[in-house]
Amino acid sequence: MPPAGSRVRRDEIVRLATTTGLTSVDELSRGFGVSPSTIRRDLARLTAEGRMARTYGGAMALVAHPEASLRQRTGEAFEAKRAIARWAAARIATGETILLDGGTTVRALAHELRDATTLTVATTGLPALEELADAEGVRVECLGGTLRPVSQSFVGPFTEAALEHLTFDRLFLGTDGVAAGFGICEADLRQTRLKELMARRARRVYVLAHAAKVGRRPFHAWARLPGDWTLVTDDTADPAAVAALRDEGVEVVTVSAADGPPA
Fold it and tell me: Which of 31, 38, 40, 134 is least enclosed by beta carbons within 10 angstroms?
């Protein structure tokens, strides 16, 4: 096997896991012509990206539902995300302090806020920071911590500690899935713990999720949001999944991808 660049090598490791199964670190090291420590770093990176998972005993395997990267998700349901973002932006009043999660729909909301005035935005997501970095009327607070490369958002004890010093008028969360009886779904327990903590610091909580995520349960880490919260989705969401959430007391707002008004 010829030497390969780091990204190509990691892609090939995933391919091997899919086809022939992974061998030992030493055998991968010899096959790729790199050191065992390099292979271990590759495996750690693949784990952080949600493409591999450690099993009992330290072995590696493909995750049942690989977590898509932020770049992969950017083009999904573009019009629906934009309509959801416009509805959410219309709820925000001048002078408020809001908290933005990570994710592509929340990024779309951050983009809508670029021309806001007298607004304070705290965020755990790099995409929102990028959108608002040069917004003159917006004061931006970054809740730093440990960066998850696959989601481009911060998690961990430093992020959680920063939350203890702030409260918010509104919180806007992203999610990988939302389902009645479970709450909101993520690939990592650090994410779900953080979302629960964020929800406790905000007066109003909104979950922004396009239709494909409603009723979806791709991972096994869940956040149960305290108190009342609002799901904002688009009008192609599964009616049965929407009805089940409403039966639990969740306010569900559906917008049209064409123009964004509430249904």
Answer: 134
